[in-house]
Amino acid sequence: MIGSILSDTKNMQSETTTFADREALRALNEIAGIEDLDAFYQEMYKALLSYDGMSDEEIFFSDYKEYETGGKKNSIGCVNAYDEETAKDLAERMKKTMPEAMAKKGMDMAFAAISILHDDLSVTYAVAADAASDEVLKLAVGNMAEFDGTSYAVKPYMSRKAVLVPAITDILESYPHE
C-alpha cells in the first residue's frame, strides 16, 4: 500500500497529492516501520523505469489513456525517465512510435508525456504524434514550454490529469481542427 501511494503521488511531490494521501502514508508507515521512505521510493522508482524487454509501442501503452473532446479522439501515454538524456531518447522513440499506435487505436491525435520527477529534477517532455497533434500541443503548452524540435519541455513536471488533459481539452473545445 505504501508503494502504491508513493507511486501515485510521485513520492508525495505531485500536485495531485492530497491530505488523505499524506495521512494514509503516515498511518501505514507506523505499521510497516520503513526507516527511509525516500530510499524505498527511489529503489521502487528505478525498478519502474526499467523498460528492458519492451518494444517502444509497449512502453507507450504502459500508462495510456484515451479521451474524446470536441469531437476528436485523442490519447496520452505517460512514460517515466530517470534523467534528461533518457527522457530525450524516449521522446524521440515515442515520436516515431505514436503515429502507428494512434492509427491502431483509431485516434485522431496522440500525445506522449515523458516525465522526470525525483530529487531536484522536475520536467515533462510533451510529444505530439503528428502535425495536427502538434498544433494542439503547441497551443496547449507552448506558452509554458521550451520546444527542442521533438518535444515541449515543461518545468516543473506536468501532470496528465491536472494539467495536460485540461489544456488539450480547452484547445479542442475552443477551436475546430479538421
| Poorly predicted parts | none
In round numbers, the mean pLDDT is 93
> Based on DSSP secondary structure assignment, what is the total number of beta strands?
6
Shape: globular
Any overview of this molecule?
The protein has 178 residues and is of the alpha+beta class. Helices cover 49% and strands 22% of the residues. It has a 6-stranded mixed beta sheet with strand order 1-2-3-4-6-5.
What does the secondary structure layout of this molecule look like, with pairings?
Blueprint lengths: L1 H7 L10 H14 L4 H12 L7 H6 L2 E6 L2 E9 L3 H22 L3 E10 L2 E8 L2 H11 L3 E3 L3 E4 L5 H15 L4
Helix pairs in contact: 6-7
Structure in a nutshell:
This protein has seven helices and six strands; from the N terminus they run ααααββαββαββα.
Question: Any descriptors?
Answer:
178 residues, 49% helix, 6 strands, alpha+beta
